[in-house]
């Protein structure tokens, strides 16, 4: 099961990376196109959608690998039971907030699909397509938060904490 979860988080990270490469290709094509006298229609729209997708696809991977910014000044002073309670409270709150956001993102995608909303650029892109990447990225974050929450409930260290511990050892 661990390898399946690891592959899921890697897929989320790779998806974010593919979106960043897509942004680079679009912008490069647009620069070359301007030099040669033609434009890439809706390049700004598509690169903006790819930026949103890369941000949200990267959330689960970044959380799992301990890359999210966490204020550990107080957390480092806690140990044992106090730290576990603090982690549990933060993860419950984070998971609840992420579930709330995910629900409404999927609802927004559904409404955009039903009402057939499209972008206002040169190419009318159905808005539900780029919105789906945000909703899927948030769903992946929910899974990563739930994974960490279950680890804390089982009195284990969440994956991000292993990364934090390793980085604090490297500083010494």
UniProtKB/TrEMBL annotation:
Q: Name one GO molecular function term.
A: transmembrane transporter activity
* InterPro entries on file: DctQ, TRAP_DctQ
List the record's Gene Ontology CC terms alphabetically: plasma membrane
Q: How does it sit in the membrane?
A: Multi-pass membrane protein
Residues annotated as domain Tripartite ATP-independent periplasmic transporters DctQ component:
23-154
Could you tell me the Gene Ontology terms of the biological process aspect for this record? C4-dicarboxylate transport
| UniProt entry keywords in alphabetical sequence | Cell inner membrane, Cell membrane, Membrane, Transmembrane, Transmembrane helix, Transport
Q: Where in the cell is it found?
A: Cell inner membrane
Q: Where are the transmembrane segments?
A: 12-40, 46-67, 88-109, 129-153
Q: Which Pfam families match?
A: DctQ
**Looking at the keywords, is Transport present?**
yes
Assembly with partners or alone: The complex comprises the extracytoplasmic solute receptor protein and the two transmembrane proteins.
Q: What does this protein do?
A: Part of the tripartite ATP-independent periplasmic (TRAP) transport system.
Query: Record's family?
Result: Belongs to the TRAP transporter small permease family.
What name does this protein carry?
Answer: TRAP transporter small permease protein
